[in-house]
UniProtKB/TrEMBL annotation, chains A, B:
Primary localization: other
Pathways per UniProt: Lipid metabolism; peroxisomal fatty acid beta-oxidation
A GO term from the CC aspect: peroxisome
Protein name, entry field: Acyl-coenzyme A oxidase
Reactions that this protein is recorded to catalyse: a 2,3-saturated acyl-CoA + O2 = a (2E)-enoyl-CoA + H2O2
Length: 682, 682
């Protein structure tokens, strides 16, 4: 198959070596080649070909095809793993590696809308490992790894309860006589709702429930509950289970609901690593679940990687399509130009690429910071976890909250903008923006709702600001809260931008604090004062995220260059991208920046804008080489518009032609409805 | 069925009389009652009950069900019309009224994703009326109205050509010997692509094609082409037709593709009101299609109404759900509060309501202006259409472009924000945000792509600005371009905001003009200079839209009050909404506003923000009464979260339970795939 001529021209003229970039992006030549080999193995396998685009299937058909494909996938993946590493040890890192294969590019290429068994390896097994005792692990872990009679899910969220976890209503009452727990969802709003794979797939659920012993409440605990018969898959007595229905995205997940009515489980199916109920009903509180907290942070760090993945998938599709698509003449009677030659189109696409790359730099840093804090916690034991000075957990928590929130929001917006930049064709499901958007948008809510996360960050920021007034030492990421110097506009443009963003963040934290105090002085409770200052608090957290993203991206770039991790041509282009990201953030935040940096004048702003346009012009010739360098396999993009060969119109037609609705020249509804209507003469 | 207690409380405590509001909103008591009666007639009819949520159906099933439902709908609607008006005259206004029934709230309630036969009454019949000669109308119009053998569509856009209409490739060659046109889509990119109903439904298409007579090109003309046999519905020889596949929204439309290969039609099937090809091939150019231009404007005015409809559907759902949903405690150990009690939630929802109401005020004005201009054109004949002074068509065109573009963009963003404000449940298809978003988002591209429309407006603005330098009289909507006075911050807050927005728009128009000139001075063509100034030009057009929206909303409010159209309690609340809209626009545009109004200081901004928060607090108690006043029938909202009775959790469960995937306790894929995998021990 030939490659579109315009794309070929772009590739030939680029100064960026996309293979060079790809090696860096993949974390080195070895990882790049390993992934490519794995992709070839699976994507060339006819077992994973797709006869019909999933968007044409009914919800039920989609479920059935996803189950069929995913069992084949898991078996073949395990086979590959055994070939590679015959003596595999089952532990946290093995599980993590396996999970990354399921959720990363390999899994995405096969399951654009995810699949029901992923939660078994992510939440279910991770919780077993983290909260199960040694005996419990001996009983369950190996069977789970081999899916030997165990198809797990993790059931926390309820129909009426999400963010406010303490409000969960599902309860587990201990019956000391029979040494059993009795699980109940006593109201409609207490039905479990959302767990992946729960609908029709899982046969065991880890259920979060309020523990009661002899009527006394002992807080939330986790219980292993078999919900379907291992052999027949029939729901067990007292179990009311099903799928919650179609959604904006992730329609392969089989999210489910679960009602429990007097479902009894043996005592040893409460996960008891952290707290125990003895046979006689005595409750023993163990070490508080520090690592649970760590898990929440972990998921947010991973989410940052997930959303930048989606953003760059979308950017790749939009970039290639914008070269292939020609529209409107610029000069006289010459042919219509590539859409990417319109500066307005460049301004839509290139900043998204810059954003994705910078999120990657920051997420790499955040990942290292996370591992440091984990070591701190594991080394220091319980003492270091309670927020004592020198412990970085609160800082990590606050950062992971606001970076996840802001990145998810902006990535989702970016995916939408990129879709819109592809005009009508971007609207088609075969372009795949809808699926990418669905998964990215989901992250806005799951694992910490956007506004809730911002408010958590803001609480931390206000606390640090108050500490700064008391001349305490501040953690590095918020040290700018102490520095009240005004902006001095120097020669380094990016430094000016970052400093202006920091000052804006500082002033907004101050304003939020003052607003809270103002409300408190009117005799409302501290909580109500926080509520009333909600707009200021969330704005402050967003401003902090912007300040951090820009400074950290610059620092990471400098560090990569120092370490010599970037070849010269890659370093050059990544440098332009980081600069574009910093300037773009500055300009997008102009409202706050100008308000809180009244010294910035029109000449300075014009200078920033000119540099912005200059960067667009300089990056333009490398746009295709750049997105080639992300090295998304065509299957991972899953898009008629974004394929490497640029055969856009051919693929659009092919995809349309294989739609089942086009398989018969005349649809049955013509004879049953249209013809009678025409004969009846409306 | 009982109504949710929290909703009841809200309704009891409101100061706004929602029936009062509803009467105004519907355009008077008569219209309100007529619509309600019509809705009862159709929504209570068991013929229009839906056994399965459309999102659970396959694409083909959805098509078939939509056809079945829509034929029933059209027949019953025609029946109702005959009862109401036995002596109906078929003309432009009859057609318009009928179309509004199909696309307005009645049609939306029955077809959330639209239906294939709508285009027959909108584009197909309208074009017949506007471009057909009297003989052609005699031959086709009555049959079309009764769908007597005619199911029409309108085929303009091609796979490779949208915005740049001159670039269309489909051609019609006149064969004088046989007095026929020969139609061809000579390339893949010239396939027609997108027309509604084209896929499997329509049997006649109005095809736009380049006319050639003896090899000479005569521009684009419209041709009536039968594409499917009237009796068998088989595609006719040379016709390659099908559905283009699933999309982000509007999946009931049956958008199609069409290839034509030497398809012959008689000479009298070129629509010849404006230009003729005589039997011998002589081409006669008639009056230029002024009203065509009017049609484009008309569609944009209507689009403004459509997107505000979607925005307010979404706002209604989010408001009711935010009262029913309780989450997080504010004060101590008291129960979790309604989400709407969080100020951050109020800031998400109330400004969207304000925006929708103000868009409505502006669209009413725009509609009147459109009718005025139409009269001007019809009265003045051809002379007044060529842009002579005193003709308002260019002004109307520029306004309709930028208002459609900006309103669509902001409404789409608003729908997304409202969805996100409903957390996880907003993500479910049964909440219906996805469908509303799909239809709103489509308007970003169709009937004038966003950026293209902004650039058209900007060209007008720059022209007017240059005129102002020459001291010419400017049209009313841009008269502020002459007024170079700086902002004087007075007592009237909204006046300050509007003036600041106008100055910002003026300065951005000036900057765009300077930027164009700067590029031109570097010896690039005028077109390339415009391309290079693309960012400044689009920003200027957006700024103009904001200035116009805010000023016009204030003026419309004043005029309604003067005329006594608003009862006192409605006037009070609408006044708060307009003020909120103006301030919200000002604050959202703070970046531009502060850049171009350097005199605004921190105290003034704090004052604006305080007023913003005050308005949120004042509107909060009337939020439910307000959305009740939009009077969306539950069927029109189509949402488990937004129903009038607030039985959110019940409906979520009911909707989940009727999903076909939940009809069998054990899905077949368990035996075929999951069980074998478990037995094989992965």
């Amino acid at each position: 198959m030939s490659v579109n001529a315009d794309l070929q021209k772009e590739r030939a003229a680029a100064t960026l070596d996309s293979e060079d970039f790809a090696r860096w992006w993949a974390g080195g030549a070895f990882h790049l080649e390993e992934r490519r080999a794995l992709e070839r193995r699976f994507y060339d396998d006819p077992d994973f070909a797709e006869a019909v685009h999933p968007s044409c299937l009914s919800y039920k058909e989609r479920y059935e095809q996803t189950v069929a494909r995913s069992t084949r996938f898991l078996a073949k993946l395990r086979q590959w793993q055994r070939e590679k590493q015959p003596q595999l040890q089952l532990d946290v890192s093995t599980l993590r590696d396996f999970r990354l294969l399921l959720s990363g590019s390999l899994g995405t290429g096969l399951f654009q809308q995810s699949f029901p068994l992923r939660v078994h390896f992510s939440m279910f097994m991770t919780t077993l490992l983290g909260q199960g005792t040694e005996e419990q692990q001996a009983q369950w872990l190996n069977r789970s790894w081999h899916m030997d009679g165990v198809l797990g899910t993790y059931a926390q969220t309820e129909l009426g309860h999400g963010t406010f976890v303490r409000g969960l209503e599902t309860r587990a009452d201990y019956d000391a006589e029979r040494q059993e727990f009795i699980l109940n969802t006593p109201t409609q709003s207490s039905y479990k709702w959302w767990p992946g794979g729960l609908g029709n797939t899982a046969n065991v659920a880890i259920v979060l429930a309020q523990l009661y012993v002899r009527g006394k409440h002992y807080g939330l605990q986790s219980f292993l509950v078999r919900i379907r018969d291992e052999r027949t898959h029939e729901p067990l007595p007292g179990v009311d289970v099903g799928d919650i229905g179609p959604r904006l995205g992730g329609n392969g997940v089989n999210n489910g609901f679960l009602g429990l009515h007097d479902v009894r489980i043996p005592r040893n199916q409460m996960l008891m690593k952290n707290a125990q109920v003895l046979a006689d009903g005595t409750f023993v509180q163990g070490r508080p679940p520090l690592l649970l907290y760590g898990t929440m942070v972990y998921v947010r760090v991973i989410t940052l990687k997930d959303v930048l993945f989606g953003l760059l998938q979308a950017a790749t599709i939009a970039t290639r399509y914008s070269v292939v698509r020609r529209q409107s003449r610029i000069d006289g009677d010459r042919p219509e130009v590539s859409v990417l030659d319109h500066t307005t189109q460049q301004a839509k696409i290139l900043p998204q690429i810059a954003r994705g790359v910078c999120y990657r730099l920051v997420s790499d840093w955040l990942w290292r910071f996370y591992e440091q804090v984990l070591q701190q916690l594991e080394g220091g034991g319980q003492g270091s976890a309670t927020g004592a000075r020198g412990n970085s957990l609160p800082e990590l928590h606050a950062l992971s909250c606001c970076l996840k929130a802001v990145a998810t929001d902006e990535a989702t917006e970016g995916v939408e903008l990129l879709r819109k930049s592809c005009g009508g064709h971007g609207f088609l499901s075969s372009a795949n923006f809808d699926s990418i958007h669905g998964l990215t948008a989901a992250a806005y809510t799951y694992e910490g709702e956007y506004t809730v996360l911002l408010l958590q960050t803001a609480r931390f920021l206000v606390r640090q600001y108050v500490d700064s007034l008391k001349r305490k030492v501040l953690p590095a990421s918020v040290s700018y809260l102490r520095d009240t110097a005004r902006l001095v506009w120097g020669k380094d443009l990016t430094a000016n931008c970052v400093r202006a963003l920091e000052i804006s963040a500082l002033e907004q934290v101050r304003q939020a604090w003052q607003s809270q105090n103002g409300h408190k002085s009117k005799k409302v409770s501290a909580e109500m004062a926080s509520n009333l200052a909600g707009r200021q608090l969330t704005s402050a957290a967003i401003a902090h995220a912007h300040a951090f993203f820009t400074r950290n991206a610059l620092e990471e770039l400098a560090s990569l260059r120092r370490k010599g991790d970037l070849s010269q041509n890659v370093s050059h282009v990544v440098g332009q991208l980081v600069e574009l990201f910093v300037i773009d953030t500055f300009l997008r935040q102009a409202g706050c920046v100008l308000r809180w940096n009244s010294g910035i004048n029109g000449t300075q702003l014009r200078f920033v804008e000119r540099r912005y346009e200059e960067l667009l012009a300089r990056l333009r010739p490398n746009a295709v080489a750049l997105v080639d360098g992300f090295d998304f396999h065509d299957r991972v993009l899953g898009s008629t518009l974004g394929c490497h060969d640029g055969r856009v119109y051919e693929r659009l037609m092919e995809e349309a032609r294989r739609n089942p609705v086009n398989q018969e020249p005349v649809n049955a509804s013509f004879h049953s409805h249209l013809l009678p209507m025409m004969r009846g003469k409306l």
